[in-house]
Design brief:
Arc Repressor Mutant, subunit A; single chain; Rossmann fold; 15% strand; 2 domains; 353 residues; alpha/beta
Length: 353
């Protein structure tokens, strides 16, 4: 967490004797900006596997030592760096989550975070009007260089997050015996398909998405050496009737983080098409922020409610479990089950044909 309070400080906060709103603004945003700056400059990668003195680190990062020391000291206080005997080194936190060599690095998502913060700039307008204020980057002109850069950050960030958090989801799912085909609806970066294919050697995955998403998925497949296990089909899941071509073809179908982007009637229609692509006995796996599934976790509640407000800004929304269950049952699926994940914020739901 960006604010690392001591035990006495936590006690004072619990007694309402510390001005906690001051930590939320501007202290937390300031720490966030420092973390983003460090990722952009490559601080954590420069310290990966070695400790360096200030001058050597400044030379490697091509910056002025005194200015760099101000950033480093802040990162030490936030718990991302350590300093001992004149040497700076990554903390355990930074080594696991912020170095590109780590398989659990979420640095690409940190680099994507300013795009998310930019959405929140419209929060006052949305609160007053309850109307969409902006569009998602993949709804913009993909030929513009600034849109291409935003899309690259968007998909890279989501892929990094999926690779880190998706393992728990894959381990919770029991795919049908002898399953060989998986459909990833709106799967773009293909990270979830990659994780499923790694666990199940017999699986081949098809990612169905619009062209920018497919391009991101193809890059990810190449980076992970999974090109032979993944295929890509370009299409608009909302408008195209992909179920006719793909009817009864798949053992598993993924509908991950799509529902919050679509209105309820469109979700119902798309899920009906997805259900038709499943073989009898096939399983549909649904993952999203579900508003009434926070399990008494303050962190989960905060993430889900912030996501709900964010999605209204870009034309989407988040839904309660009963709404999702109704969609799945109307699509002809049964045994709808919700599963609590250790990682807060998202809910796993499964259903069978």
């Amino acid at each position: 967490m960006p604010l690392r309070l001591t035990l006495p400080e936590r006690l004072l906060a619990s007694l309402n004797l510390l001005p906690v709103p001051l930590f939320d603004a501007p202290l937390a945003p300031g720490i966030t900006k420092a973390l983003l700056t460090a990722c952009e400059m490559g601080v954590f990668d420069a310290l990966n596997g070695q400790a360096l003195p200030l001058d050597a680190l400044a030379q490697r990062l091509d910056c002025q030592p005194q200015g760099l020391s101000l950033l480093l000291n802040l990162l030490i206080s936030a718990g991302y760096l350590r300093y001992r005997r004149g040497l700076y080194r990554n903390s355990r936190l930074a080594r696991r989550w912020l170095t590109s060599a780590s398989p659990t690095s979420i640095a690409p998502y940190i680099l994507h975070s300013p795009d998310i913060v930019a959405i929140w700039e419209h929060m006052p307008e949305v609160v007053r009007s309850n109307r969409q204020a902006i569009r998602m980057p993949y709804e913009e002109d993909a030929t513009r260089p600034e849109t291409q850069a935003a899309l690259a950050r968007h998909y890279a960030g989501l892929a990094a997050l999926a690779m880190v958090l998706g393992g728990e989801i894959v381990n919770r799912i029991r795919v049908p015996q002898n399953a060989t085909r998986l459909l990833d609806v709106g799967g773009s970066h293909a990270a979830y398909s990659i994780l499923f294919c790694r666990k199940y050697p017999a699986l081949q995955a098809t990612i169905l998405d619009i062209q920018p998403g497919i391009e991101a998925g193809q890059r990810m497949a190449k980076q992970t050496g999974m090109t032979s296990r993944l295929s890509f089909q370009c299409g608009d899941i909302a408008r195209d009737d992909f179920s006719t071509e793909l009817a009864s073809s798949f053992d598993v179908a993924l509908y991950f983080h799509i529902a919050h982007l679509l209105p309820p009637e469109l979700n119902a229609a798309v899920l009906a098409k997805v259900a038709r692509t499943l073989k009898p006995g096939g399983v549909l796996v649904f993952v999203d922020q579900v508003t009434d599934q926070t399990h008494h976790s303050r962190l989960a509640s905060l993430m889900v409610q912030l996501m709900a407000l964010t999605m209204i800004t870009v034309g989407g929304t988040c839904y309660p479990f009963e709404t999702v269950k109704t969609w799945l049952e109307e699509a002809g699926l049964r045994r709808v089950r919700r599963h609590r994940l250790i990682t807060p914020g998202a809910t796993l739901i499964t259903a069978r044909k």
